[in-house]
């Protein structure tokens, strides 16, 4: 048993790695969770963090039922969300810069507040093309899907507590599917294919709208953006002339 009353730790290739303040940072070289000895004994672990390119699969986490934060950034070989059903206390799931191709297997994560499935830049071969699988995540407050290949804003009706939505660098042509997001404060839609400003009427708590590198916008859309500015919303856009 690889823990005792004074400390918790795992073994990776014979090297001892301690849990500090409830957080375990996994080594960059890790390829599979079964390379770790003692992970299943860390029943009280709160945060599990990995920032590396080698990890290939989410697995062997069933016993970490008190885990609140799972951060697996930069795993370019990671292509599937899976094996998270037991992590019902999870609040943060960060798979930034992976090659996840589908939003799936999240139905048991009802306490999730932050979901990050975006990329910091265009990379890899797999991209999310459809927003789905979020029906049970009514506690979600932040959703990041930037740098994917999403064409339509949809599948968000249950996210009534969402405050931050990042959909920049996609292939979206129309602002839609936001009517239920009455608590939304920040909306990022830059670098899409949007030409008309609409579908924002119910966003009474909106504070930031970032919609650069879209358009061209007609006069009605420009007026709508300027009106939002005058109401105190931080609106960022570029007015490309209509050809």
Q: How many beta-strand runs? A: 13
In percent terms, what proportion of residues is strand? 15-25%
Global outline:
elongated
Named at the architecture level, the CATH assignment of the largest domain is Alpha-Beta Horseshoe
In which range does the helix fraction lie? under 10%
Instruction: Provide the low-confidence segments as ranges.
Output: 1-6
CATH structural class of the largest domain: Alpha Beta
Our count of domains comes out at: 2
Instruction: Write the element-wise H/E pattern from the N-terminal end onward.
Output: EEEEEEEEEEEEHE
Spatial arrangement of strands, main beta sheet: 3-5-6-7-8-9-10-11-12-13
Helical stretch tally: 1
Distance between the termini: 70 Å
Q: What's the mean pLDDT score?
A: 93
Could you explain how this protein is built, in words?
- It is a single chain.
- With 243 residues, this protein is mainly beta.
- It has 2 domains: 1-126, Alpha-Beta Horseshoe (Leucine-rich repeat, LRR (right-handed beta-alpha superhelix)); 155-243, Ribonuclease Inhibitor (Leucine-rich repeat, LRR (right-handed beta-alpha superhelix), Alpha-Beta Horseshoe).
- It contains 1 helix and 13 strands.
- It has one helix spanning 219-230; strands at residues 9-12, 15-18, 23-25, 36-37, 47-51, 69-73, 92-94, 114-116, 142-144, 164-166, 186-188, 208-210, 234-236.
- The strands form 2 sheets. A 10-stranded parallel beta sheet has the order 3-5-6-7-8-9-10-11-12-13, with helices on one face. A 3-stranded antiparallel beta sheet has the order 2-1-4, with no helix packed on it.
- α1 (219-230) links the parallel β12 (208-210) and β13.
- The chain is elongated and about 65 Å long.
- The termini are far apart.
